[in-house]
C-alpha cells in the first residue's frame, strides 16, 4: 500500500458546507495498492489500484484517482513576495499548492459516515464546487432518501443541491416515489428552522476529523414526464414539487390520477404520500374530468359463487311458499 499526503490548502473564505463536500481546506490523505505517480510538469498526482483520497471525513474510492494542483494564489491585497522553492517546483505536499480538481475512474464510491454516492466516473471541480457522476448505477443517498439517475448526477455542496438527469427517481420510505426527466433535490441546512432532529452521531475516534452530514431533503422539484406513486395511485403531470417534510406533492400540467381502471384529469393535483390520498384542484377556466369504472361484480355473491350467510335469497317477485301448519 502506497501512501501520499497532499497538504494542498484551498483558498480561504469558502463556505463551510456539509455532506459530500471536498471543497473545504485541509490535507488530503491518498493511498493506493498499485502505486502513486507524481507528474511535476503536469502538476498532477495519479493513484492506481483501489485508490483512496480522504479529506475532512469525506472519502473518494476508485480504481484510479487523479488530483490536479496548482500554486496557491496570494490573498487579495497582500504584498507580492518571492516564490518559495516549493511553489517554484510545484510540490503538492507543501502549503504553497492547492488542489483544484479531483477525477475518479472505475467503481467510484464517495461517502461520509451517513451519505453515499456511486458511479463509474466522477469529476469534482473545487473551483465550481460541484461533483458530477456519470456511468452506470448512478445514485446518491442522504438520510432515508435515495436519488438515482440514468445520465448524470450532480452534487452542489455549497448550494445544498443535487441534480439528477435522465430517468431520475427519488425513493422515499414506505414505497413513495417521485420520477421525472430531471429532478432537483434541495437539502435542508442542519440547524435551520423546521429541520427534523437528527440522531446523535457516533463520536469520532480521537485524532480523526469530524464527519460532516448532509441535511435532510427539504424539497424535490421534478420536470418532464413526472410520475408520483403511492401505495394505491399513480399521479402523472408535466412538473411537480414534493416536500418530504410534509409528505405533500403538488403536480402541475396535464395531470392524470390513476387508480386501477379509474382516472381523473385536470391541471393541478395535491398528493399526500403519507396517506396515499390524491385530489384534483380546480383552476379558473379549466374543467376537471374523470372516468369512473363501476364495479360489475354482484355484491351479494362473493367471488367463487359462495352464497351469502343464511342461504340464497329468492327474487323479490317470487312468491313465498305457504307456511305449513300442524
TrEMBL record:
Name listed for the protein in its UniProt record: Organic solvent tolerance-like N-terminal domain-containing protein
UniProt keyword terms in alphabetical order: Signal
Pfam families: LptD_N
Single annotated GO MF: glycolipid transfer activity
Listed Pro residues bias regions: 196-209
Domain Organic solvent tolerance-like N-terminal: from-to ranges: 36-149, 174-276
Signal sequence extent: 1-17
Amino acid at each position: 500500500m502506497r501512501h501520499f499526503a497532499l497538504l494542498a490548502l484551498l483558498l480561504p473564505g469558502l463556505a463551510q458546507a456539509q455532506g459530500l463536500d471536498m471543497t473545504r481546506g485541509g490535507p488530503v490523505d491518498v493511498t493506493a495498492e498499485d502505486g502513486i505517480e507524481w507528474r511535476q510538469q503536469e502538476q498532477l498526482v495519479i493513484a492506481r489500484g483501489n485508490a483512496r483520497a480522504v479529506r475532512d471525513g469525506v472519502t473518494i474510492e476508485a480504481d484510479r484517482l487523479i488530483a490536479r494542483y496548482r500554486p496557491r494564489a496570494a490573498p487579495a491585497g497582500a504584498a507580492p513576495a518571492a516564490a518559495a522553492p516549493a511553489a517554484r517546483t510545484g510540490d503538492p505536499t507543501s502549503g504553497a499548492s492547492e488542489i483544484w480538481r479531483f477525477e475518479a475512474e472505475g467503481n467510484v464510491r464517495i461517502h461520509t459516515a451517513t451519505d453515499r454516492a456511486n458511479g463509474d466516473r466522477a469529476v469534482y471541480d473545487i473551483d465550481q464546487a460541484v461533483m458530477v457522476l456519470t456511468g452506470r448505477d448512478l445514485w446518491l443517498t442522504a438520510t432515508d432518501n435515495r436519488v438515482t439517475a440514468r445520465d448524470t448526477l450532480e452534487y452542489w455542496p455549497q448550494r445544498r443541491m443535487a441534480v439528477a438527469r435522465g430517468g431520475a427517481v427519488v425513493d422515499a420510505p414506505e414505497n413513495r416515489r417521485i420520477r421525472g426527466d430531471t429532478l432537483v433535490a434541495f437539502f435542508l441546512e442542519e440547524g435551520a428552522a423546521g429541520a427534523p432532529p437528527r440522531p446523535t452521531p457516533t463520536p469520532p475516534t480521537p485524532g480523526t476529523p469530524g464527519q460532516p452530514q448532509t441535511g435532510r431533503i427539504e424539497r424535490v422539484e421534478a420536470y418532464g414526464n413526472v410520475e408520483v406513486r403511492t401505495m394505491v395511485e399513480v399521479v402523472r403531470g408535466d412538473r411537480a414539487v414534493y416536500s418530504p417534510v410534509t409528505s405533500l406533492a403538488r403536480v402541475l400540467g396535464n395531470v392524470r390520477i390513476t387508480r386501477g381502471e379509474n382516472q381523473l384529469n385536470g391541471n393541478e393535483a395535491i398528493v399526500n404520500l403519507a396517506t396515499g390520498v390524491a385530489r384534483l384542484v380546480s383552476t379558473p377556466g379549466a374543467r376537471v374530468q374523470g372516468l369512473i369504472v363501476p364495479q360489475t361484480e354482484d355484491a351479494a355473491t362473493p367471488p367463487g359463487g359462495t352464497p351469502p350467510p343464511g342461504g340464497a335469497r329468492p327474487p323479490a317477485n317470487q312468491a313465498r311458499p305457504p307456511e305449513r301448519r300442524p
